[in-house]
Structure formats: C-alpha cells, structure tokens
What does this fold into?
Amino acid sequence: MTTAVLLAGLMGAALSLMFIVPFQAFVSLSFVRRRLSLRWDEIAVAVRKSGVVAALTTLGPLAMVVAGGFSFDLSLGQAIFAGCLAAAGWLVGVFVTGHPLFDEIVNAGRIFRNAVAPT
It folds into this structure.
C-alpha cells in the first residue's frame, strides 16, 4: 500500500484497498472456517442474503457512475443522490431477501412510533 501511495497518491491508496481488504477477509475466514470446522458452502449460505443486499445497494451509485460516462467525479448533489439511491437499494434488498435486519427495522419503527405517539 505504501508503494501505491507513493506512486499514485490517494487514488492509489484507495485502489490498493480493493485488493487488500478482500485478501484479509479471505485469510480471516480461512482461519475461522478451520477453527470452527465449517465448509465454504456453509459460509456462503450464511452470508448469501447479505451479499444480495450489498449488490442491490451498489446498483444506484453504479448507475450514477455509468450515467456520468464512467467517471467518479460526481458533484456534491450527484454524490448525495447516489447515497440516497444506495440507501433505497439497501432497504429494498433487506425487504426482498427477508434479511434478519428487516425484523429489527420493523421492531425499531414500532418502538419509535410508540414513543412518539400521544398518550
């Protein structure tokens, strides 16, 4: 990563993380998998809903980049809109997949509604 920073600055550091983070996750999962005697397919089943949610979260910002001619130079308004699209994609993903977080969101909404509701 140090070399990437020296050669390409901040963009090089960001791009190097695209390789470093997945590699570290793979190494960590390998150790955990061995320690708990898990198979890779068991891990895949456990995280598949989260993977779908993550994919749906990226669709909106990716569409913004594609619409901008594959340029990551977004204005502040475009970046905020891309963030809103990501949030909407995340919510849709949590709902569509029946992710365990959906129940937590519904419960938090119920608690908030009861706390705010007039007595």
